[in-house]
Amino acid sequence: MSQRARQSMFPEGVAPIAAPLISVVIATHNVASCLPHCLNSLRAQSFRDFEVIVVDGGSTDGTVDLLKAASDVVTEWRSGPDRGIYDAWNKALPLARGEWIAFLGADDWLWDADALGRLAPALRGAVPRYRIVYSRLRQVDATGRVIDELGEPWEACRARFRSHVCLPHPGLMHHRMLFERHGGFDDSFRLSADYEFLLRELADGDALFVPTLTVGMGWGGSTTSPGNFVLGMQETERALRLHGLRPPTVTWAYWLLLARAYAVLRALVGERAARRLADLYRVLTFRKPRYSVVQTAGPEEGSR
Protein backbone atom coordinates (compact mmCIF):
# COMPACT_ATOMS: atom_id res chain seq x y z
CA MET A 1 0.00 0.00 0.00
CA SER A 2 1.38 3.45 -0.87
CA GLN A 3 2.40 5.79 1.95
CA ARG A 4 -0.16 8.32 0.69
CA ALA A 5 -2.93 5.74 1.09
CA ARG A 6 -1.91 5.09 4.71
CA GLN A 7 -2.05 8.71 5.83
CA SER A 8 -5.16 10.43 7.17
CA MET A 9 -6.75 12.49 4.41
CA PHE A 10 -8.04 15.23 6.73
CA PRO A 11 -6.03 18.09 8.26
CA GLU A 12 -5.09 17.25 11.86
CA GLY A 13 -6.98 19.08 14.55
CA VAL A 14 -9.42 20.70 12.14
CA ALA A 15 -13.07 19.92 12.84
CA PRO A 16 -15.70 20.62 10.18
CA ILE A 17 -17.74 23.77 10.90
CA ALA A 18 -21.48 23.53 10.25
CA ALA A 19 -20.79 20.18 8.63
CA PRO A 20 -23.49 18.58 6.46
CA LEU A 21 -24.56 15.01 7.05
CA ILE A 22 -23.35 13.90 3.60
CA SER A 23 -20.58 14.91 1.21
CA VAL A 24 -21.06 13.69 -2.37
CA VAL A 25 -17.76 13.50 -4.27
CA ILE A 26 -17.65 13.38 -8.08
CA ALA A 27 -14.47 12.94 -10.14
CA THR A 28 -14.79 14.25 -13.71
CA HIS A 29 -12.81 14.34 -16.92
CA ASN A 30 -14.42 15.30 -20.25
CA VAL A 31 -17.94 14.37 -19.12
CA ALA A 32 -20.00 17.28 -20.46
CA SER A 33 -22.42 14.84 -22.10
CA CYS A 34 -23.44 13.00 -18.90
CA LEU A 35 -22.60 15.28 -15.96
CA PRO A 36 -25.86 17.33 -16.21
CA HIS A 37 -27.95 14.23 -15.47
CA CYS A 38 -25.89 13.52 -12.36
CA LEU A 39 -26.08 17.13 -11.13
CA ASN A 40 -29.81 17.38 -11.85
CA SER A 41 -30.44 14.30 -9.71
CA LEU A 42 -28.67 16.08 -6.84
CA ARG A 43 -30.61 19.30 -7.43
CA ALA A 44 -33.86 17.34 -7.18
CA GLN A 45 -33.22 15.89 -3.71
CA SER A 46 -35.88 16.61 -1.11
CA PHE A 47 -33.26 16.03 1.62
CA ARG A 48 -30.91 19.02 1.58
CA ASP A 49 -28.29 18.33 4.29
CA PHE A 50 -25.51 17.53 1.83
CA GLU A 51 -22.71 19.16 -0.14
CA VAL A 52 -21.21 18.33 -3.53
CA ILE A 53 -17.44 18.32 -4.15
CA VAL A 54 -16.16 17.93 -7.73
CA VAL A 55 -12.52 17.30 -8.68
CA ASP A 56 -11.97 17.60 -12.42
CA GLY A 57 -8.94 16.22 -14.23
CA GLY A 58 -8.44 19.20 -16.54
CA SER A 59 -11.37 18.72 -18.93
CA THR A 60 -11.35 20.36 -22.36
CA ASP A 61 -14.89 19.49 -23.54
CA GLY A 62 -17.05 22.00 -21.66
CA THR A 63 -17.16 20.18 -18.31
CA VAL A 64 -15.50 23.13 -16.57
CA ASP A 65 -18.10 25.52 -17.99
CA LEU A 66 -20.82 23.26 -16.57
CA LEU A 67 -19.17 23.38 -13.16
CA LYS A 68 -18.88 27.17 -13.27
CA ALA A 69 -22.62 27.37 -13.93
CA ALA A 70 -23.58 24.85 -11.24
CA SER A 71 -22.94 26.89 -8.08
CA ASP A 72 -26.52 26.17 -6.97
CA VAL A 73 -25.63 22.51 -6.41
CA VAL A 74 -21.82 22.21 -6.52
CA THR A 75 -20.39 23.41 -3.21
CA GLU A 76 -16.74 23.37 -4.28
CA TRP A 77 -14.79 22.26 -7.32
CA ARG A 78 -11.21 22.09 -8.57
CA SER A 79 -9.77 21.42 -12.03
CA GLY A 80 -6.24 20.33 -12.91
CA PRO A 81 -4.20 17.31 -13.96
CA ASP A 82 -4.51 14.15 -11.89
CA ARG A 83 -3.45 10.51 -12.07
CA GLY A 84 -6.96 9.12 -12.44
CA ILE A 85 -10.15 8.70 -10.47
CA TYR A 86 -8.60 7.51 -7.20
CA ASP A 87 -6.11 10.38 -7.15
CA ALA A 88 -9.04 12.74 -7.77
CA TRP A 89 -10.99 11.20 -4.88
CA ASN A 90 -7.98 11.64 -2.60
CA LYS A 91 -7.76 15.29 -3.60
CA ALA A 92 -11.45 15.71 -2.78
CA LEU A 93 -11.27 14.23 0.72
CA PRO A 94 -9.64 17.24 2.46
CA LEU A 95 -12.41 19.42 0.97
CA ALA A 96 -15.24 17.21 2.24
CA ARG A 97 -16.90 18.37 5.48
CA GLY A 98 -19.66 15.77 5.74
CA GLU A 99 -19.98 13.14 8.43
CA TRP A 100 -20.58 10.63 5.64
CA ILE A 101 -18.85 10.65 2.24
CA ALA A 102 -20.23 9.05 -0.93
CA PHE A 103 -18.68 8.84 -4.40
CA LEU A 104 -20.59 9.07 -7.66
CA GLY A 105 -19.30 8.69 -11.19
CA ALA A 106 -20.22 11.50 -13.55
CA ASP A 107 -22.49 9.05 -15.37
CA ASP A 108 -24.17 7.89 -12.15
CA TRP A 109 -27.20 9.57 -10.61
CA LEU A 110 -29.47 9.44 -7.58
CA TRP A 111 -32.44 7.32 -8.55
CA ASP A 112 -35.22 9.64 -7.38
CA ALA A 113 -35.82 12.79 -5.33
CA ASP A 114 -36.03 10.91 -2.02
CA ALA A 115 -32.88 8.79 -2.43
CA LEU A 116 -30.76 10.60 0.18
CA GLY A 117 -33.77 11.13 2.43
CA ARG A 118 -34.37 7.38 2.66
CA LEU A 119 -30.75 6.82 3.72
CA ALA A 120 -30.54 9.63 6.27
CA PRO A 121 -32.22 7.84 9.24
CA ALA A 122 -29.87 4.86 8.89
CA LEU A 123 -26.83 7.15 8.67
CA ARG A 124 -27.78 8.99 11.83
CA GLY A 125 -28.00 5.75 13.81
CA ALA A 126 -25.20 3.68 12.26
CA VAL A 127 -22.13 4.76 14.22
CA PRO A 128 -20.40 3.37 16.23
CA ARG A 129 -21.39 -0.13 15.11
CA TYR A 130 -21.26 0.56 11.37
CA ARG A 131 -18.96 2.89 9.43
CA ILE A 132 -20.06 1.69 5.99
CA VAL A 133 -23.70 1.94 4.86
CA TYR A 134 -24.84 0.82 1.41
CA SER A 135 -28.06 0.27 -0.51
CA ARG A 136 -29.22 -0.93 -3.92
CA LEU A 137 -28.22 0.40 -7.32
CA ARG A 138 -29.28 -0.33 -10.87
CA GLN A 139 -26.84 -0.59 -13.75
CA VAL A 140 -28.39 1.02 -16.83
CA ASP A 141 -27.03 1.02 -20.38
CA ALA A 142 -27.06 3.86 -22.91
CA THR A 143 -30.50 2.82 -24.22
CA GLY A 144 -32.10 3.02 -20.76
CA ARG A 145 -32.25 -0.75 -20.33
CA VAL A 146 -31.67 -2.00 -16.79
CA ILE A 147 -28.73 -4.41 -16.95
CA ASP A 148 -28.71 -5.49 -13.33
CA GLU A 149 -29.71 -4.53 -9.80
CA LEU A 150 -27.04 -4.87 -7.14
CA GLY A 151 -27.12 -4.76 -3.35
CA GLU A 152 -28.17 -7.39 -0.81
CA PRO A 153 -27.97 -7.79 2.96
CA TRP A 154 -24.46 -7.95 4.41
CA GLU A 155 -25.16 -11.34 5.97
CA ALA A 156 -25.88 -12.76 2.51
CA CYS A 157 -22.86 -11.28 0.72
CA ARG A 158 -20.19 -11.02 3.46
CA ALA A 159 -18.38 -14.24 2.45
CA ARG A 160 -18.37 -13.31 -1.25
CA PHE A 161 -17.11 -9.81 -0.45
CA ARG A 162 -14.20 -11.32 1.44
CA SER A 163 -13.34 -13.60 -1.48
CA HIS A 164 -13.99 -11.69 -4.71
CA VAL A 165 -17.08 -9.41 -5.00
CA CYS A 166 -17.06 -5.70 -4.08
CA LEU A 167 -20.13 -4.03 -2.60
CA PRO A 168 -21.95 -1.69 -5.03
CA HIS A 169 -19.70 1.35 -4.58
CA PRO A 170 -21.45 4.31 -6.28
CA GLY A 171 -23.43 6.02 -3.53
CA LEU A 172 -22.02 3.81 -0.77
CA MET A 173 -21.63 5.86 2.42
CA HIS A 174 -18.22 5.99 4.12
CA HIS A 175 -18.09 7.51 7.59
CA ARG A 176 -15.29 10.08 7.70
CA MET A 177 -13.67 8.08 10.53
CA LEU A 178 -12.68 5.51 7.88
CA PHE A 179 -10.37 7.99 6.18
CA GLU A 180 -8.99 9.21 9.49
CA ARG A 181 -8.20 5.62 10.44
CA HIS A 182 -7.23 4.05 7.09
CA GLY A 183 -6.01 6.98 4.98
CA GLY A 184 -7.01 7.46 1.36
CA PHE A 185 -7.35 5.29 -1.73
CA ASP A 186 -4.28 3.48 -3.06
CA ASP A 187 -3.98 4.92 -6.57
CA SER A 188 -1.51 2.24 -7.66
CA PHE A 189 -4.76 0.37 -8.46
CA ARG A 190 -6.41 1.43 -11.74
CA LEU A 191 -9.75 -0.30 -11.20
CA SER A 192 -9.98 -1.78 -7.70
CA ALA A 193 -8.79 0.81 -5.18
CA ASP A 194 -12.36 1.18 -3.87
CA TYR A 195 -12.48 -2.58 -3.17
CA GLU A 196 -9.06 -2.52 -1.49
CA PHE A 197 -10.14 0.43 0.66
CA LEU A 198 -13.33 -1.31 1.80
CA LEU A 199 -11.32 -4.42 2.66
CA ARG A 200 -9.34 -2.36 5.19
CA GLU A 201 -12.54 -1.98 7.19
CA LEU A 202 -14.56 -5.06 6.23
CA ALA A 203 -11.97 -7.85 6.12
CA ASP A 204 -13.02 -8.37 9.74
CA GLY A 205 -15.76 -5.74 10.20
CA ASP A 206 -19.41 -5.34 9.25
CA ALA A 207 -21.46 -3.06 7.00
CA LEU A 208 -25.08 -1.94 7.20
CA PHE A 209 -27.40 -2.61 4.26
CA VAL A 210 -30.41 -0.34 3.72
CA PRO A 211 -32.94 -2.16 1.48
CA THR A 212 -33.82 0.69 -0.86
CA LEU A 213 -32.86 1.67 -4.41
CA THR A 214 -30.86 4.90 -4.37
CA VAL A 215 -28.47 5.03 -7.35
CA GLY A 216 -28.48 4.54 -11.10
CA MET A 217 -25.09 3.59 -12.53
CA GLY A 218 -24.08 4.15 -16.13
CA TRP A 219 -22.96 0.88 -17.71
CA GLY A 220 -19.94 1.03 -19.98
CA GLY A 221 -17.19 2.75 -18.00
CA SER A 222 -13.73 1.30 -17.44
CA THR A 223 -14.73 -0.97 -14.54
CA THR A 224 -17.56 -2.62 -16.50
CA SER A 225 -15.74 -2.94 -19.82
CA PRO A 226 -15.02 -6.58 -20.74
CA GLY A 227 -11.69 -5.35 -22.11
CA ASN A 228 -10.63 -4.75 -18.51
CA PHE A 229 -11.69 -8.13 -17.13
CA VAL A 230 -8.16 -9.52 -16.77
CA LEU A 231 -6.77 -6.37 -15.14
CA GLY A 232 -9.78 -6.16 -12.82
CA MET A 233 -9.31 -9.75 -11.68
CA GLN A 234 -5.58 -9.28 -11.17
CA GLU A 235 -6.18 -6.18 -9.05
CA THR A 236 -8.94 -7.86 -7.05
CA GLU A 237 -6.61 -10.74 -6.22
CA ARG A 238 -3.85 -8.30 -5.24
CA ALA A 239 -6.25 -6.42 -2.95
CA LEU A 240 -7.37 -9.65 -1.28
CA ARG A 241 -3.81 -10.85 -0.68
CA LEU A 242 -2.87 -7.49 0.85
CA HIS A 243 -5.42 -8.30 3.56
CA GLY A 244 -4.57 -11.97 4.04
CA LEU A 245 -7.47 -13.21 1.90
CA ARG A 246 -7.69 -15.05 -1.40
CA PRO A 247 -10.26 -15.66 -4.16
CA PRO A 248 -12.01 -19.04 -4.60
CA THR A 249 -9.45 -21.21 -6.39
CA VAL A 250 -11.52 -23.19 -8.91
CA THR A 251 -14.08 -20.48 -9.68
CA TRP A 252 -11.34 -17.86 -10.01
CA ALA A 253 -9.34 -20.03 -12.43
CA TYR A 254 -12.47 -20.49 -14.59
CA TRP A 255 -13.26 -16.76 -14.66
CA LEU A 256 -9.65 -15.88 -15.44
CA LEU A 257 -9.70 -18.36 -18.33
CA LEU A 258 -12.85 -16.69 -19.71
CA ALA A 259 -11.34 -13.23 -19.29
CA ARG A 260 -8.17 -14.18 -21.15
CA ALA A 261 -10.20 -15.92 -23.85
CA TYR A 262 -12.18 -12.70 -24.31
CA ALA A 263 -8.94 -10.71 -24.63
CA VAL A 264 -7.74 -13.05 -27.39
CA LEU A 265 -11.15 -12.93 -29.09
CA ARG A 266 -11.17 -9.14 -28.97
CA ALA A 267 -7.74 -9.01 -30.62
CA LEU A 268 -8.87 -11.39 -33.36
CA VAL A 269 -12.33 -10.09 -34.28
CA GLY A 270 -12.50 -6.58 -32.81
CA GLU A 271 -14.41 -4.98 -29.95
CA ARG A 272 -17.92 -4.99 -31.43
CA ALA A 273 -17.91 -8.64 -32.53
CA ALA A 274 -16.27 -9.76 -29.26
CA ARG A 275 -19.02 -8.05 -27.26
CA ARG A 276 -21.70 -9.78 -29.34
CA LEU A 277 -20.06 -13.14 -28.81
CA ALA A 278 -19.74 -12.48 -25.08
CA ASP A 279 -23.48 -11.77 -24.97
CA LEU A 280 -24.20 -14.94 -26.95
CA TYR A 281 -22.28 -16.89 -24.31
CA ARG A 282 -24.36 -15.23 -21.59
CA VAL A 283 -27.61 -16.16 -23.36
CA LEU A 284 -26.44 -19.76 -23.80
CA THR A 285 -25.70 -19.92 -20.07
CA PHE A 286 -29.20 -18.57 -19.23
CA ARG A 287 -28.18 -14.99 -18.36
CA LYS A 288 -29.19 -11.63 -19.77
CA PRO A 289 -27.03 -10.02 -22.48
CA ARG A 290 -25.22 -6.90 -21.29
CA TYR A 291 -22.26 -5.95 -23.49
CA SER A 292 -23.22 -5.61 -27.15
CA VAL A 293 -25.21 -2.35 -26.93
CA VAL A 294 -22.56 -0.51 -24.88
CA GLN A 295 -19.97 1.77 -26.40
CA THR A 296 -16.50 1.47 -24.94
CA ALA A 297 -15.42 4.32 -22.66
CA GLY A 298 -11.81 5.42 -22.54
CA PRO A 299 -9.86 4.73 -19.34
CA GLU A 300 -9.64 8.42 -18.42
CA GLU A 301 -13.05 9.63 -19.58
CA GLY A 302 -16.67 9.19 -18.61
CA SER A 303 -16.91 7.72 -15.15
CA ARG A 304 -13.22 6.83 -15.44
3D architecture notes:
The chain has 304 residues and is of the alpha/beta class. The protein has two domains: 3-224, Alpha-Beta Complex (Spore Coat Polysaccharide Biosynthesis Protein SpsA, Chain A); 226-284, no CATH class. 37% of the residues lie in helices and 18% in strands. Strands 1, 2, 3, 4, 5, 6, 7, 8 and 9 form a nine-stranded mixed sheet that branches. Helix 10 (249-269) packs across helix 11 (271-284). The protein is globular. The relative contact order is 0.16.
Mean pLDDT: 88
CATH class of the largest domain: Alpha Beta
Q: How many angstroms separate the termini?
A: 21 Å
Q: Can you tell me the CATH superfamily of the largest domain?
A: Spore Coat Polysaccharide Biosynthesis Protein SpsA, Chain A
